[in-house]
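User: what does the whole thing look like in 3D?
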Amino acid sequence: MIKFSNVSLIYPNSTTTVIEDLNLEIAEGELVLVIGPTGSGKSSLLRLINGLVPHHTGGILAGTIEVDGISTADVKPGALAHLIGIVGQNPINGFVADTVEEELVFGMEALNLSNETMRKRVEEILDVMSLASLRNRTIATLSGGEQQRVAIASALVAHPKVLVLDEPTSALDPIAAEEVLSILYRLVHDLSLTVVIAEHKLERVIQFADRIVHINGQGSAVVGTPEEILMNSPIAPPIVELARTLGLKEMGVSVREMRRMTQEFRDSQEVIKGQVLIRSTKACVSVKELSISYNGKYAVNSLSATIYENEIVAIMGRNGAGKSSLLRAIAGISDNAAGEVIVNGINPQKLHSKQRRENIGYIPQEPSDLLYGQSVAEECKQADHDNEVEGGTTLTLLSQLVPGISAHTHPRDLSEGQRLGLALSVVLSANPHLLILDEPTRGLDYQAKRVLTKMLIDFARSFNRSVIIATHDVELVAELATRTIFVADGDIVADGPTIDVLLSSPAFAPQVSKIMSPQPWLTVADVVRAIEMKN
Amino acid sequence: MKKLSFHPLTWWIFSGAVAIAIARVNSPIFAITAVGVMSVIVFTQRDDAPWGRSFNATLKLSVWIIAIRTIIGVLIGVPIPGTTLFTIPTLPLPNWMPGVRIGGAVTLERVSSSISEGIIICAILVVCGAAASLTSPHRLLRVLPVYVYEFGISVVIATSVLPQLVFAISRIRMAQRLRGQNTRGVSAFKRIAIPLLEESLARSLDLAAAMDARGYGISKKRSKYRPIKWARIDVAVVVAGLAVVALS
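Assistant: Here's the predicted 3D structure for the full assembly of 783 residues, as structure tokens:
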């Protein structure tokens, strides 16, 4: 269905090739997963399939790419619209109509399909993607998961033979992600649709993949079955790490397979409870009866909580549960918050300039919002100057966090992970008492996540600081957080040590705990510790 | 009042007619009346959507235009004789600029003619803003022919990306506040403008790529899922508009 022959790609003004001499053939009805570190060219590979690269982006392409016998070099991307459906990283950026139904028909109208065909297909796709109840809704009012489904539906409705998705689950909570993926899985099996997905959160998709394309960032790519690729890849979801650590001969990619293989490790010991939590008794944040409403709707509804020093608190919950609103209120920038928030004995709304930087550090969903310098060096110098620390402090911090960034690079040219690293260094150079991160792991690979985890734990331990992190990433929470607060409809539904909260809900349980249940182990490290304790 | 559904061209035709009438009658009283009528229509019928706010935006813009025009009209221009209100010193100008004068006697006639001209120009602007407020640009795009391809892409980008940018401004300002930075003044403008510009470019490119990938503009003909039809109410509005032109 898709055939890459000797494909090389290089962007203008760049010295490194994105893809070098790639040969790849994808058969009809295959689900292929593209993995690689951030900034390695996964998105470029996906957009090569329908010719958006290089038709839309520029760049030099060598070799040929054929989709269903048509070479992408010969036609414009639009001429392949009937053949390939593509869903970008941020579906909201690609919507062209006001309502769900209008969005669905946009592509079909452009292809000049007859009215009867369109009517049939709209009804069909509304059912397949369970969107029937949303057909007349305005797209802007939908939740993230619903928007993702609309984006996939509007790509599928033209009956393409190939569907290309760029990180379809990165912004979704675990349940919404599961929903989207199971629909894709069904389409592959029922309609023999060919699907190409790029995704960082392998734990979510690995079990559905037939083959993996691993791009290593230096231009070369390896293709193989999930087992082959993951055996030796530095990119490994917890499930694979577990298999490696336990020294299993074979590798399972689903919880079911792995449970069979790890029977002996589970049964060989009694159910023992893991780490004990020691937490400071000094409160860092205290929230009392906090309510935030937008246009009469409550985003946060009389919520009370206390967060102590040296705690790392994860805030979890569905898309639109009020996580970001809560974080903004704690940071003191919510204008319509009622109730009381105290950070370090101060009302955070009264914090300004230096005092603010020293009390609260905040990393927003888009870390680049914080950045405005023309180079990494300029950004770091500004932070040194603002925080009255010795020149070079921020840059040193950055090089510990993400080594190998040239100081002359423009922040826009950094990869997602590097940009987050830069924003973090800028914020941490003030050594704030409280660090707040809103969804920091969108688009981060495992390597970057490990660095982030280590760094946040070090920060909290060595300076006795508190960290609050809102995220959908259960694996990150398992590795990082000492306490988890689960929010639904603007109120707390569960609050306690991470282990208790995560284990009480199967949808939010990390992979290792699903495999090792009933043992209360959340991470590979927990398993290792338990086995060592026994020996 | 209940919201009615109109053909996307209805209000543009009506507004065009009213604008022509305003220009033909050339009376500030008529212009203000027309703006009043349009306001009533807009406030009862507009969509609760980003473009719905364009009427308010044109109103604000108009106030500025009238103010600036009046000041400039009073300072510079051809003198109109009449009742002198006050006199400001005259700036000497070289000989090769006869007839133009800066400063001098300010007459009642000069002020009132400046203001009334301003009102008429702004009324035309506001009436167009009203049409924009009352019509979804995406629906408008669907009734326009395919050969306005480039225009279509621009319209969709402008109407989808601009409202998102308003969001982005507040988001970036908030982030900068959190970094403990001042969010007012010239240097703050630079700090906000740079990420904003980058984001708007990235978003526009994303959207153009998405439209392209979905085959927009590939087929010369474009089918219609739900053809937008002219209803009786549309005809009534258009006839009313034409009547206004005829009577003016």
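In plain terms: The two ends of chain B are 29 Å apart (CA to CA). The first strand of chain B starts at residue 84 and ends at 91.
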